[in-house]
Specification:
Structural class: mainly alpha
Strand content: under 5%
Number of helices: 10
Number of strands: 2
Helix content: over 70%
Length: 205
């Protein structure tokens, strides 16, 4: 998918950035009204991710930063910095034990739902945006109902896998399947969240 750019005043940004920012803000607002505690740790996680991603340029391009410290304001850590930021965010979740795994999964699903919908809209894929929102909402609602039932953790893992496969299928439908940063992020998050569910199940047993 060819990157599409937008301009607001003197600021030019890719569609993917617009979708990411929208997903963070809308998910935070959703959590704020649904579960105030979740909105607190979600904002901390996002801050951790962005801070590490931004400052990772110091490690990745140390020589340039030493010679021109002002570059910290204008540059970030790129793809390597992104993965460092994600690792930092996931470590925060594990160390702080922020919430029940199903609540974390719901916050992740909402983030992805908004990101994919906004991204498709910015690329003028309105029909695909509608289909993706509908499918994701159905899985999310079903997930919310099943999470509190007996055996909810098993349902949670299965629905998370289904949710991830829906994103990968629709992305493959647009431009063919390829391992992009987004694709790997979905797979890493799915694996990590299933791991959290298994850890919780062992503690209960």
């Amino acid at each position: 998918m060819t990157q599409q750019w937008y301009t607001i005043g003197s600021f030019t940004f890719p569609a993917s950035w617009g979708a990411i920012i929208a997903s963070f803000i809308i998910t935070f607002l959703f959590l704020f009204f649904w579960n105030r505690k979740a909105s607190d740790w979600y904002s901390n996680i996002i801050f951790t991710f962005l801070l590490v991603w931004k400052l990772s340029v110091i490690v990745i391009d140390f020589q340039t930063v030493i010679e021109h410290p002002i570059t910290i304001l204008y540059f970030h850590g790129g793809v390597i910095g992104y993965w460092l930021g994600l690792i930092a965010a996931l470590t925060y979740i594990m160390v702080k034990k922020v919430d029940h795994p199903t609540t974390i999964i719901i916050s992740w699903m909402v983030t992805v739902l908004v990101y994919e919908a906004v991204l498709h809209i910015l690329y003028n894929h309105y029909l695909l945006a509608g289909i993706q929102v509908l499918l994701n909402l159905l899985i999310l609602v079903f997930f919310s109902k099943k999470a509190g039932d007996q055996g909810g953790d098993t349902w949670a893992g299965q629905l998370l896998i289904m949710f991830t496969l829906v994103q990968l299928f629709l992305r493959a439908f647009i431009s063919g399947f390829e391992f992009t940063v987004t694709t790997w992020t979905y797979l890493v998050m799915m694996t990590y969240l299933i791991f959290l569910l298994n850890v919780r199940r062992k503690h209960i047993e």
